[in-house]
# Entry
Amino acid sequence: MVDIKENIQSIRYRIEKACDKAGRSTDEVTLLAVSKTRPIEDVKEAYKNGITEFGENKVVEICDKQPLLPYAKWHMIGHLQRNKAKKVIDKICMLHSLDSIALAEELQKNAEKSGLDFLNTLIEVNVAREESKYGIFAEKLPYFVDELSKYNKIHIRGLMTVAPFVENPEENRSIFSEIRELALDISRNLPHNSDMAVLSMGMSNDFESAIMEGATIVRIGTDIFGNRGGTLL
Ligand SMILES: *Cc1c(COP(=O)(O)O)cnc(C)c1O
# Structure
């Protein structure tokens, strides 16, 4: 049996430890519970134990769960197909996976239509250049940010990355530090309605390394809710 309450306590403790080691305050790091594939009972159990922000990677799951727990904050962390932008735009507090101008255009269009002030977004960067992963390559970032300045409904808040699975989380330190440096470079030249305050990086396997390198959101599924089973991401 997975004890969600105990798991949350243990993750919070590990986040504190990592923040201590990095000389950072725990207030700087948001624990985002990744609830994809989990039943609403598990999500409610986490909420009861102090988790207020949840991450999902499928639009259908956000649409199902958000109305059942509307006081929580919902984040879209998975690849967003353009034709689903409309469905999710008013249910999330942040999109972590902006990775194309075409998607930005669709979000802008739908935000205008629905009267949404703006959408907080992170740009997903594929630092390790893995073919299986979404996200733009680092060298495209300046051009991409420049293009995004046309879309006033999109506020860029930072960067997100999904690091490779590694046996030793220390191996991902260089990936996380590259994200931090990219954010710093980009922040010198941002459109007025954007900043680079958020670095969404680190998962169950490597969040401590990510905190060492400046993560402000860690996305944790397995270590809170247990194994998802099968090969389902
Ligand atoms: C599933 C997922 C996570 C959480 O992964 P765990 O290893 O279960 O902690 C984090 N980020 C993204 C984008 C995911 O899809």
Notes: The chain has nine helices and eight strands. Residues 34, 36, 57, 77-78, 162, 203-205, 219-223, 233 surround pyridoxal-5'-phosphate (CB under 6 Å). The first strand starts at residue 30 and ends at 34. The chain has a mean pLDDT of 96.
